[in-house]
Write a structure and sequence with these properties.
- The chain has 207 residues and is an alpha+beta fold.
- It folds into 2 domains: 16-102; 125-205, Immunoglobulins (Immunoglobulin-like, Sandwich), CATH 2.60.40.10.
- Helices cover 34% and strands 19% of the residues.
- The chain has helices spanning 16-30, 43-63, 66-94, 98-102, and strands spanning 125-128, 135-138, 147-154, 162-166, 172-174, 182-191, 194-195, 202-205.
- Strands 3, 4, 6, 7 and 8 form a 5-stranded antiparallel β-sheet that branches. A 3-stranded antiparallel β-sheet has the order 1-2-5, with no helix packed on it.
- The radius of gyration is 19 Å and the shape is elongated.
- The chain starts with 15 loop residues before the first helix and ends with a strand.
- This is Fibronectin type III domain-containing protein.
- InterPro entries: FN3_dom, FN3_sf, Ig-like_fold.
- Residues 117-207 form the Fibronectin type-III domain.
- It comes from Sphingobacterium bambusae.
Length: 207
C-alpha cells in the first residue's frame, strides 16, 4: 500500500523569518477552513505565540543584545511545539487526502505545492509620511509572497541596521528616521520555500 501524504511538522531547521511565514500562512489558511473545524491547539492560542515571537524577534534585531536573542529563542520553542501539535491534528483529520492537507497551509511530504520562491519585488516607491521623520513604502504585491522583509539604512552606511516585517505591500510606515538625512530602502518577499531576491535600492530624504 502506498504511503499516505502527510504535512511536515518539523520546524527546528527553519530560519526565524521562515518560521514566521510558516506560522502566519498556516493560521491564515486554517481560519474558517471547513476541513478543520476544531483545530487543536486553537488558532487563537497559536496566534498569541506568534505575536509574542514576532515582538521578541523584532526586539532582538533592533537592539542586538544577547538578552534579547535569548528571549527570542525561549519563545520560539513553544511556538514550534504548538505548530507541531497542530500538524498532528491536520494529519489525523485529513487522513492523507492531499488537497485537504494542502489547504491547511502546512508543507506536504508529497512535495506538491502551488508556491515557489518569490520573485524580485518590483515598483518600489517611497514618499513622505504624514508626519515628520516618517517615510511611506509601497511596492508591487506578489501572490507567492506570504510576508515581506524591508531593511533600511542611512545613505553611505555599509550595514543594513534596521529591519521590519509586513504582510502588506501598501501603506507601510518606516519611522522614526532622522530628519534631513538620506535613507536607502530595499524589500524582498518570503514564503515557506525561501526568500526572494532583494529589490533595487530606493533613496529618499526624510522631511
Amino acid at each position: 500500500m502506498a504511503n499516505k501524504s502527510k504535512v511536515l511538522v518539523n520546524f527546528a531547521r527553519m530560519k526565524d523569518d521562515e518560521l514566521m511565514v510558516a506560522a502566519t500562512t498556516i493560521i491564515s489558511a486554517m481560519t474558517d477552513n471547513v476541513h478543520f473545524e476544531t483545530p487543536s491547539p486553537s488558532l487563537e492560542s497559536v496566534q498569541v505565540l506568534v505575536d509574542d515571537y514576532a515582538a521578541k524577534l523584532n526586539a532582538a534585531r533592533r537592539r542586538g543584545a544577547p538578552s534579547d536573542t535569548a528571549l527570542k529563542n525561549e519563545v520560539r520553542q513553544p511556538l514550534e511545539e504548538a505548530l507541531q501539535k497542530l500538524g498532528y491534528y491536520v494529519n489525523a483529520t485529513a487522513q492523507g487526502h492531499l488537497s485537504t492537507l494542502l489547504s491547511s497551509g502546512f508543507r506536504s511530504s508529497s512535495g506538491i505545492s502551488s508556491l515557489e520562491v518569490p520573485l524580485k519585488i518590483e515598483a518600489v516607491k517611497v514618499r513622505d509620511g504624514r508626519q515628520s521623520g516618517q517615510v511611506r513604502l509601497d511596492f508591487a504585491p506578489q501572490r507567492a509572497a506570504r510576508m515581506y522583509e524591508c531593511v533600511y539604512r542611512k545613505q553611505h552606511e555599509e550595514a543594513w541596521s534596521a529591519h521590519i516585517s509586513t504582510t502588506s505591500s501598501r501603506l507601510n510606515i518606516i519611522a522614526p528616521l532622522s530628519v534631513g538625512q538620506y535613507y536607502e530602502i530595499r524589500v524582498r518577499g518570503i514564503n515557506t520555500h525561501g526568500q526572494g531576491d532583494w529589490s533595487d535600492i530606493v533613496t529618499i530624504m526624510v522631511r
